[in-house]
Structure formats: C-alpha cells, structure tokens
Design goal:
By secondary structure, this protein is mostly helical. It has one domain (2-426). The chain has helices at 2-17, 22-58, 62-89, 91-97, 105-117, 119-134, 139-161, 171-195, 211-243, 247-283, 287-314, 316-323, 328-341, 345-360, 364-389, 394-418, 420-426; strands at residues 162-163, 166-167. The protein has 17 helices and 2 strands. Helix 1 packs antiparallel against helix 10 (247-283) and helix 15 packs antiparallel against helix 16 (394-418). A two-stranded antiparallel sheet has the order 1-2. Helix content is 83%, strand content 1%. The protein starts with a helix and ends in an 8-residue tail after the last helix.
Length: 434
C-alpha cells in the first residue's frame, strides 16, 4: 500500500498535467526514466541496509540494528547530495540524450531540475521506510506516505494552475509540489528514527564513517542498485525508441508506464516483504522457513497480479481516458499498450518476489543477472527489432514487455527451484556478519 501510494505522485502529476495538453504529459514522461535511473543507486543501498537490519533483528541483536541504521542514514545522505548536485547541472544534456524534441525540451528540463532538488528528501524517506520494513514495522511509513499524497492532491493543482493571486507554474509546479511533500515526509521519518521509540534509534556518534561496514553495505547494495539501474536504463533506452514515433506515442507510453508502475510498485511491495521475512528467518537460522516464505509469496504475487492484470485489460480505455480525456489517438494507443502488457503482470510479480528471496539471503547478484537477462538481452532487442523491422511499428515496443516478463520469470523460477541459493546459506557463504 505504501509503494502504491508512493507511485501516486507521478499519477497525480499526469492527471493534472493532462489538462495542460499532450506536450506537458510527454515532457514529464521523458523525465521519469532518468529520475528512476538516478534514484536506483540510493534505493539499492537502502535495500542493503534493510537486509542487514532484518538479519540483525532475526538474530535479536538490537545494538547492531541501531548501528547499521545509523550508518545507512549517513551514507545515503551524502550520496543523495552528490546525486542532486550532478543531476541538476546535467538536466538539459540528459533530456536531449533521451530524445526530447524542441516542443517539449524546455518543460522537460524544468521538471527535471526541480525534481532533482527533492532527491535528498526522497532518499532520506527511502532510508526511513527501508529500515522500518527491516524490523517489520510497515504501517508507520504507509501512514506518512498517505498523508503526504493527500497533501499533494491539494498542492498539485494549486502550483500547476494557480489560484486567485497565486500564479500557476505549469510543469514546474507539479515538481515543486512533490518536493514539498517529500521534504515533509523525510523530516518526519528522521525525527522518528532519532527519537528511537519505533524499534530503531539512530545516533550521531554512530554515524562516523566505518569502512568495514560500508564495504559490507556496498557488497550487498551495489548489485541491487545495478539491478534497479538496469531496469531504469532499459526504460530510458525504450524512451529513445519511443520518441522516434512522435509526441502522441510518447504520451501513450508515459501513461502506460504509469499504469505499469501501479503493478510494479505492489510487486516490489511483495518483494520487500519477502526480503524482510527471508532476512529475519535467515538471521534466526531458519532456512526452511525462509523457503516457505518464498513459496507463499510467489503464489500470492502471481495469482493476485494476474487478477489485477485481467481487470486492467478490460478497463484499459476508460483508465487511459481518465488521464488524457481530450485526445482520442493517445487514448487508443495507450489502451492498446495496457492490453498487451496486462496478461503478463502475474509473471512480473513472480519475478519480483523471487528477487526478494535472493535479496533477503544476501544473494543480490542473482537478481541483477536475471534483470540484465530480461531487460537488456530480451526486452530492448525485441522492442528494437519489432518496431524497426516489422510492420508492427510502435506496437512492437508494447509486445516486448510481456515477452521479457515471461522469460525473466521462467529463468528466476528455475533457479529458485534448483535450491542453489539455499545450499550457499547452509555452507555459510552468504550469511551476513552479526
């Protein structure tokens, strides 16, 4: 639920910007993959922090829970400042890189620049959210996200269109309203961690740089960061292909990807829950119980998201029309994209849950390899070949999604069933030091 609410920031932006026109939607759509790519590094490292904390929690080592949390906060804080500075100054070259045309370049750069200001806030809340999940406290982050999303519902139209003497700022207003609400959530999260009344207490003395701990965090987190960066990079390359078909197809792709995010986010939620439970059970040396968690999560994700996919298939056109009500061509194209993707959503959920098992075991390299296979060896080549060498044109881009979802899920499931990851744990080769 927290992840689904988090994705509402982009959906709310898309809804209101759709009232400005197709170019506004296209400008933000171009920014999204690059923003996701930048955020991937921090997200992977916060996952590493949550895995370490989960295993410490399973081993009932509260001292290590607090210390690991403090180290995670300081590492991510300085990383977020660096990324915010770099991306702000590289915004225009990045937008040109993904193929922003002259009609949307200025607005896409503006949106990206303002969004980069919020990286520090966004990363700090990611840290809070991951650490709370690591100890099994999942409701508190959800309540905070719910409050900020409701606030964003009010601020978005205010900053985009203005009210009374307050002048609207268009695309820039959408980014500013998101940064404000993200800042509020980050401050609340850090206050809770410093007070220490919710299972984790961070302290400034424990934030001194610890090379050994940081090395352990990077060993777990870098493969996860690369896995998410691989996903974001593939999305970015697809945008480059999409832009060659014009603004209407870019807008259709942007809406379809946001609908896809409604599936990816809950799938990631199942994955994170699986990571936490697997990590805690491994910390308690309950490897068989960790496998049972993986089996159950796989069933829930596959059948649950398959059901959601069927509903999205049936209601694809009215859902698309909700975002861009006055453009029949974009509605038609985006609805087709959703219908082609939707039947494979259960497979996407299955793959994400299995990644959660491997991540919880500290075996993040496997998740990385599966993502590289599915996205770079299957999705992008298939998208390129079908859209450029067949009569399908842009529809070939849409078909690359279900094909890659199927093959990636198949590979992940086969590896999971071989039990090799369990064998590594029994031998103690992937246990995280306590």
């Amino acid at each position: 639920m927290a992840n689904a609410l988090q994705s509402m920031y982009q959906l709310i932006d898309t809804f209101w910007l759709g009232r400005l026109g197709v170019n506004a939607v296209a400008a933000v759509s171009l920014s999204f993959p690059i923003l996701f790519l930048i955020l991937s590094l921090g997200a992977g490292l916060t996952l590493a922090g949550s895995v370490i904390v989960a295993q410490a929690k399973g081993a009932k080592n509260q001292k290590n829970v607090n210390y690991s949390s403090s180290q995670t906060v300081v590492v991510i804080f300085f990383l977020s400042i660096l990324l915010s500075f770099v991306t702000y100054h590289a915004s225009e070259p990045l937008m040109r890189l993904v193929g922003a045309g002259p009609e949307i370049l200025t607005e896409s750069v503006i949106y990206f620049k303002y969004s980069s200001f919020g990286f520090v806030f966004l990363f700090m809340f990611f840290v809070f959210q991951s650490l709370m999940r690591g100890i099994g406290n999942v409701w508190l982050p959800m309540y905070i996200v719910l409050g900020t999303v409701l606030l964003n519902l009010v601020l978005d139209p205010l900053f985009i269109f203005g009210y009374g003497s307050f002048e609207g700022m268009g695309v820039a207003g959408a980014a500013i309203s998101s940064v404000i609400t993200q800042g509020i959530s980050a401050v609340i999260g850090m206050i809770i961690l410093f007070k220490g009344k919710r299972g984790i207490k961070i302290k400034f003395p424990q934030m001194k740089w610890d090379f050994k701990w940081t090395k352990q965090m990077f060993a777990i987190g870098i493969p996860s960061s690369l896995e998410q960066s691989t996903r974001a990079g593939a999305m970015t390359m697809l945008v480059v292909l999409v832009t060659s078909f014009g603004s209407e197809v870019v807008a259709a792709y942007g809406i379809g990807v946001r609908i896809l995010s409604l599936i990816v986010i809950p799938a990631l939620g199942f994955s994170i829950a699986t990571t936490t439970l697997v990590g805690q059970n491994i910390g308690a040396n309950q490897i068989k119980r960790a496998e049972k968690v993986g089996d159950l999560s796989a069933k829930i994700a596959f059948f649950g998201l398959t059901g959601v996919g069927i509903l999205l298939f049936v209601f694809a056109e009215p859902i698309t029309a909700f975002f861009v009500p006055n453009d029949p061509q974009v509605i038609k194209e985006s609805a087709l994209f959703i219908k082609i993707m939707a039947p494979s959503f259960g497979l996407l959920g299955l793959q994400q849950v299995l990644n959660g098992v491997f991540n919880g075991a500290g075996f993040t390299q496997i998740s990385l390899l599966i993502s590289i296979f599915g996205l770079w060896m299957i999705r992008f080549p298939v998208a390129f070949l079908l859209s450029n060498n067949t009569s399908l044109d842009e529809v070939g881009l849409w078909w690359s999604f279900p094909i890659s979802n199927f093959l990636a899920a198949l590979v992940g499931f086969i590896y999971y069933k071989t039990g090799h990851w369990k064998g590594m744990l029994v031998k103690g080769r992937h246990q995280i030091s306590k």
